[in-house]
Specification:
Layout (H helix, E strand, L loop, with lengths): L4 E4 L4 H17 L3 E7 L8 H21 L8 E7 L2 H9 L4 E6 L11 H9 L4 E5 L9 E4 L4 H17 L3 E7 L13 H19 L2 H4 L5 E7 L2 H9 L4 E5 L4 H4 L5 H8 L4 E5 L1
Parallel strand pairs: 1-2, 1-4, 2-3, 4-5, 6-7, 6-9, 7-8, 9-10
Antiparallel strand pairs: 5-10
Amino acid sequence: MGEPIVVGVTDAPAAQRAVEWAVKRASAHRLPLKLIEVVGGAVGAVGEDEVLDAAVAAARERVEATASALPRLGLKVYMRVERGNPVAVLTEASARASLLVIGSDHTGGAAHRRGAHGLRIAAGAHCPVVVVPDVDVSDRSGVVVGVDGSPVSEKAVAFAAAEADRLGEPLIAVAVWTPLEVPRNMGAYPVQYLENMEKLTAEALRLSLAGLASRYPDLEIVRRVERGYPSHVINELAASARLAVVGSHGRGALARFLLGSISQEVLARLATVTAVVR
């Protein structure tokens, strides 16, 4: 049996959606599930221990109730409740996980931006992270993946293709090209430049998807080459999709806690269940 899927549990509605999403994936891949709730916010104030003890007890009851309500179907479930910093605890737990799933109170729309915790967890995790908004996506269709030809993009494509095949959904692979800013004294873009940018992007997309048809013969693959800004295009497509997948280009000990601008912008305007792959 492989490493577990770790789920962050809270009393928010989106946390239940996160658990439900993780259960389906764990059952499909025959992986164990680990439910973790972290009681944070301690500052060392006098009398705080009594409050913390009560909060930990309530969290333990919540995790146990969540676990007992799961449709087991052979699913192995672990539980963990502790005090601490939620970002630090979930990041540490991700080092021994195949996937980390967290809920978000985001309900769609550009005006509702994400808080720092979810972004920090997604940036610092050692494994792919799935962020589940408080939105019903059951009537949506398709798995959207952003493609840019980089090594991390290849991992995102592999993750997205496997999920699209599991869900029986089309894979919508989108490569976005953004022209250089035209100097004011230059005028319009040369037609040849625009045509070549589009052709190069289409070729990079073709190479990134090579081999998927043989690996997933029943998978419908939709190729999209778009002009614009990547996060805007991805979120527009994600608004009607069941899942979006993006890569994170963080590198090194410090960079691991920083998302690339595209993945951060996609999470900041969370349009659907979104996986960040590194």
